[in-house]
User: Fold these one by one.
Assistant:
Number 1:
Amino acid sequence: MAVLPIRKYPDPVLRQPAQPVSVIDEKLRRLAADMVETMEDANGVGLAAPQVGESVRMVVVDFDPENGDPRVLINPVITKRSGRKELGEEGCLSFPGLRTRVKRSPKVVCEAQNLDGEIVEYQAEGLSARAVQHELDHLDGFLFVDKAGPSDKLSLKSELEELEDNWAELHG
Ligand code: NI
């Protein structure tokens, strides 16, 4: 297993809608294992494949960050959202140092394949529900800062510009 480099905003791969996984093979299993290791190394609660430069519909989510319960979700879909949306603070490993408030459903049900190709249903609440929604957004090219309220967006502007400048310096 290996810790992979994490793509930072505004890397274009983060805006690309990810492709469905059609074959669960050794290469995908290795990517999943590396993503779990990368998430744990960064003390994150979730990581989506585009964040390590692979535009495929796979995420890893730690459903119990205190004790560690990392799960691999392939072709995940949210099948149910319940409760009134709640505002809560989020960060993202592709936005180092940046945090903002995003409205999310407090409870979700998510269906995904596991590495054996079986369909598994996940009932997530609170932080896990937030993580599932955040990671699944990544697969459609949506980023948490897109969902910040207007005043939070305004205060994020300079931090985003700083990340854009850093990225341009490395890749421009
Ligand atoms: Ni993220």
Note: The mean pLDDT is 97.
Number 2:
Amino acid sequence: MATSAEHLAAQQELERKTAELSRSAALLRAVLGATTDGILVTEDAGKITSFNDRLAEIWRVPREVLAAGDNRRLLEMAAEQSGDPPAFLARIAEIYETSPPETYDLLELADGRAIERSTRPLVLDEQRIGCVWSFREVTERMRAEEMRARLAAIVESSHDAIVSKTLDGVIRSWNAEAERLFGHTAEEAIGQSILLIIPPERQDEEREIMERLRRGERVEHFETVRLTKDGRRIDLSLTISPIRNAAGRVIGASKVARDITDRKRTDEALREADRRKDEFLALLAHELRNPLAPLRNGLEIIRLAGTDANAVSRARAMMERQLAHMVRLVDDLLDVSRISRNKIELRRARILLSDVLSSAVETARPAIEAAEHELSLALPPTPIHLDADLTRLAQVFSNLLNNSAKYTPRGGRIRLTAERRGDQVAVSVTDTGIGIPADALPHIFEMFSQVDRSIERATGGLGIGLALVKGLVEMHGGTVTAESAGPGKGSTFTVRLPVLEESLDPGFPETPEREADAGRPKRRILVAEDNRDTASSMAMILKLAGNEVHAVHDGAEAVAAAERFRPEVILMDVGMPRLNGYEATRRIREQPWGRDIVIVALTGWGQPSDKSRSQEAGCDAHLVKPVKMSELEDLLTSEMRTPTGSSRHRS
Ligand code: ADP
């Protein structure tokens, strides 16, 4: 029997234990209440054992619902918020069924919150009696992670190289563009010193930049040079910003690098174009002003000369020359600008290369003769047809011939050759002139390009002739190239053009020019002229036009040759050694065979007295040198229409 004292002690012990127990329970509740996670303890899928306030908060479920201990009600309400209730409930059922030792899930709720859930079994006396669920709201962390992923994607896809490094200059990140630009892969670069991409001579620069970054400064649009893996130096614009940790301390730097090699090249090209434009304008002003002084002088001479016909005609000739020069400059300018705007239309037709070349020689002849150059020609024996614009192609070759005349010291040699090469014809203009330095050759066809302004100044030009040549040749589907063995060694310009095959296009219509040409009678012509260059170039042009030509250099020879050669036409220079042109004409007219020959006197002066003298001597016509071929052609056409059979010149 227990004594009352024993009873009391037992009573007290029970009370103490009870107090201890309820303190433990209160402590447990307090601990649950103090944890930052929402905690839920369940005995089975249907019953809640305990929970804390944070759980009610996270799931936005009234405390009373939880306090009632009905887990099914909680699951219903939570599932509703989950955005996908069936999946949510299925997962809970799976956890209860399989009772895994530990699970983690990330739930994205319909309202945008992110909840991390973990479950562990609740074990008492080695027996699993339920589950402990903890829930943590990780919305902020999720957002930060998303942001980081998004930023990483932006960095990766950026067209700038983006690199980050520590304050000690150790590379920490390296995007795809950095790989492309510098040639090192991210694997190779990360962990290495940033000096990897800094050229040795620029390493001080890096130290300075690091100093500024440590002070928290940003370096913007810093243009510099960096090194690639294969040793190339590239122009970059850098923007470097300090990277701070959460405490605001600078812990490294991010570097955004943009490749400005192309931009630099474009800038340089723009500057160069601008410089050339300025130079060109100065040159243009100079070139256009040049002829103005002689023009004004000419007017003055005409005013003062009064009745001195000789002086007036000389002034007029000079003014015409100057005006023609100006017109040519302006025409070239307009043509070049039309080509560069694609405004030139070719009037293509089936034409003969020899027609193109004879027209070009005709145009360039005065310049070639003035400089006393010797011009020689070598053309293929069979006619070559082109599908081309005769005027424009003639412009090409007369430009090249004029250049050769200009850039060759007096008394040089110019060769014009054409050679058939497969389905192309290569026409070359070669001179014994000042040549072209190797470094200038690649630019010679660019607009406004001139090798040595001091020389071109003296010759007068705008540096657009070759640009025009190139443009026109390319419009014809051809190419033009320049060669020179160097200064003083002469130059060769070669134009290659596609040839029109006879057999390929049998029904090709003849052009009006060709018809006229074909109808033009081929004549036997004697050229009597003491200046050998003038004689040979004139003979050449006449031959190119299809005539049979013989040239002699004094009056006595002229008479002898006329007898042998029996020409239909004689072009008779008046001032010649041994016998002058008048005397030679007289002697020819005395012969029976000489009466029907058309004799055209060529003189330097076209005064009425000269004309009457040549008429008296028996000349049919009188032309003033330099003779324009078109003029001569017109004259011959009209003269030769005179009916033959009755002699026109009877002594
Ligand atoms: P320009 O009006 O100056 O003659 P072009 O475009 O015709 O202009 O020629 C460009 C430059 O090419 C010339 O200024 C000259 O320096 C060089 N050049 C052209 N043709 C020759 C040549 N036959 N021999 C030497 N240099 C030449």
Note: Confidence is low (pLDDT under 50) at residues 503-519, 643-647.
Number 3:
Amino acid sequence: MTQSTQLPANHAPPDTALRSRASNHGPTADFIIVLSLLVIGVLGALTLGPVGLIAAVPAGLLLRRWSTDSGPMCRDHGHTALVDRARIFSWEIDSRTGRIVTMSGNVAEVLGYEPSELEGADAATIIDIDEARAVLREEARLGADAERRSIVTARHKEGHDVTLREVRLTPRREGLVRGVSVDIGEFADALRFQAEHDELTGLASRSIVEQTVVESLDAADDRQVALIVADLDRFKGINDTLGHPTGDRLLRVLAERLRASIDTIDVMARIGGDEFAFVAIGDLTVDSANSLAEEVHGLLTSPVAVDGLQLAVGASIGVAVSPGHGTTYAELLKCADIASYQAKHSGGGVAVFEASEGEASVTRQELICDTVRALDVGEFELHFQPQVDVRDGRIVGAEGLVRWRHPRHGLLAPADFFTAIEVGGHYHRLTDVMLRQAVEFGARMLEHGHRIPVAVNLGSMSFLDRRLPDTVGELLARHGLPGSLLTMEVTESDILDEKGRDAPVFEHLGALGVRLSIDDFGTGYSNFTRLRSLDADEVKVDRAFVQGLGRTSEDAIIVRATIQLAQLLGLDVVAEGVETEEQLRELQSLGCTTAQGFYWSTAVHPDAFLDLLASNATARAAG
Ligand code: C2E
Ligand code: CA
Ligand code: CA
């Protein structure tokens, strides 16, 4: 088990430009790190009791290191003043009713309200609801690709504005929005600037592209919006052979050239390592947008003198124009992406989106009516995502994620149908099916000689189900699976929910030897002491934090603090949603040992998972 091998990476290599940015913290970045450390430290001290105080110690050590590294900028600011302002809270909002579902206790310090005053209240009490809706609409449509962080303005009970940095977490069910907000006080402007600009090229960031498109689509005029996305070809080769500094210089020259040459484009942005996006608003046609894109193509692909070399890259460009190709940001982006993909496959150049067969849209009503039939015929299946030891690529776990193999709509993810399940009152029935499939799969892995735990997700409703421990016990016995090879993933907020929580359920599960994992750890700070009393085995860091690794220093701080807290409590840590090598490297340097994410694999059918396990083992034997 000690020989090392890597589960083949599933994804493109890291975004090099971003990596170089991450390692060169400017004064602002360092400052944010200090701020974030204090957030964690203060949080610890305020909400975690004795454990928090211990956690604040490493934060304090780090703080010293950073302040020496980063020069006078940090020392000039009184730490005490920072401590006073650093505040964080977590929340859940029902996006359909606009009501606040849960609020963590710390909100009182930030917004002046007690959680009980806000729970059940209209979210408009504290935020601009129209603005929030617009963000959520787009996020829902973008799904996995959504940028889940933004800077928002909230209203304090006493009437003044409070600027918050918000990180939204994986939606647990349709219509529920969850997140964590940090009060960033007077650093708002610096952070906002950072969020709106690409540090390397000075072009706009993705969030500005989105904001501009959303605003101009919302404006009731008859101007069109063209969204042009450009993906450089052969850029990776330049980075690999000539080094990242050269790659960075090339990007800067290209950005400068674009800025100097085109004035008919409203927003020019770098949205990824070698990806650019352009927004033009006005009296546009598909043809005029196409010419604009051709112009961009010419500028991106003509040779550039960098470090005494003549370098040239190719570019694949996709164009989408409203309203023909979409009337929302998500639709336009999707169409432009598809077009750029088409362009890439025909050897580069410019492609305008062409609609293929219209996709069937899933209506909620239809799904609600369909769930009984689907349960009867067994259309729900658990797929498994590997959990990997980041040190050697070994598969060390499997998380079961439910999918609905719908006869007309294909494979549906939980966010598409969980409401239908809940509305239809089929939650327990579905959970039973998932539990059975998880235990069966755990036993099947064991038969194939793979002794790794299988995890299943449980919602808060499961804890009201007094039959649960018996059901689990019978399943384990029937399939001969030791309890220690079954993990129950529950979220912090579900566990800590005072209302209706049935603690004996946990005790009984514990008696079976079943592992308990806290999903989305770090988002429900309010009740850490109780969390300790639950005797968990593992915590999972939400992907919203992992996604920011290498990009925003705050997320690294949150992940690091989570790992440290978990280690103090003797818990395993699993980082979720790893997509890039850069994130992986940062996790390794933060001391995280286990992770999962698209970087290695999505959730796959059980048969495919066994194949993954087999090749993982073969590679290990060979390596
Ligand atoms: P979760 O437990 O936090 O699951 C992680 C989600 O992140 C999964 O989405 C997974 O496919 C996705 N994911 C994993 N790696 C990556 C990555 O690298 N990048 C990105 N962008 N996403 C990644 P999924 O399958 O749609 O599940 C969403 C949520 O639905 C889950 O969040 C879980 O809370 C719930 N869920 C899934 N299966 C079940 C189930 O059988 N029972 C219950 N009660 N809830 C479930
Ligand atoms: Ca989970
Ligand atoms: Ca999670």
Note: The chain has 25 helices and 21 strands.
Number 4:
Amino acid sequence: MSVIMVVSLETVLPMRLDYFLAHSAGLTRKEAKKLISGGAVTVADEAKPKANLQLRPDQVVMLHGEVVQLPGHRYLMLHKPVDVVCSTDDPEHRTVLDLLPAVLRAQVHPAGRLDRDTTGLVLLTSDGQWSHRLTSPNHACGKCYRVTCADPVSDEDLQALADGILLRGEDSPTLPALAERVNTHTLRLTITEGRYHQVKRMLAARGNKVVGLHREQIGDIVLDADLAPGEFRALTEEEVAGI
Ligand code: URA
């Protein structure tokens, strides 16, 4: 069984610079203090950092010009707003990484994608194996969406979505899904695949149009109701282990 070490900078910082450096670089506090006083350590926004400086989560620490990080992987949930893209780099739009403090941005990638106009739960991590489990078709991790449609959703639509739908240009139907009505124009749809624009195309195949799409849950991880669009928090150990 693999042991997952969760370190969230938001929960461990503020932390003294000498303590942070000792933990990150495997040094004694004395060695760390010597490097700091000798000028080998730089901290964003601090002209001459002292050993007792209390680090903020957005401050990048460098030792001999290299970024210093606490050991262990990062696991975050983000409430993605509209007009933000799920990639690490985009010349035209804000990315999900732009919503994180610099020190975290350098380390994580989004595990799976949402369209630019889709809102809701995005998971970010530095752990490639964990994100593979989330996105691999073999693991069939359920993703639950609240789907708002232009036209009313019929019982036949719900049954067809649940049974599987042959999408335009594809030769195998979507896997069975869970489809429940929320109100006349809104449903909750849980799918285990991640085909291109899957939810929008499933509804399009029923002659409807998605006008609002919001991801509420991935596996057992539910988007935290306390997170406003654009906000993030570290996952708990239970949330990480549940994937
Ligand atoms: N399906 C879509 O069509 N869009 C998303 O962003 C996610 C799932």
Note: The chain has three domains: 17-67, 75-137+220-241, 142-218.
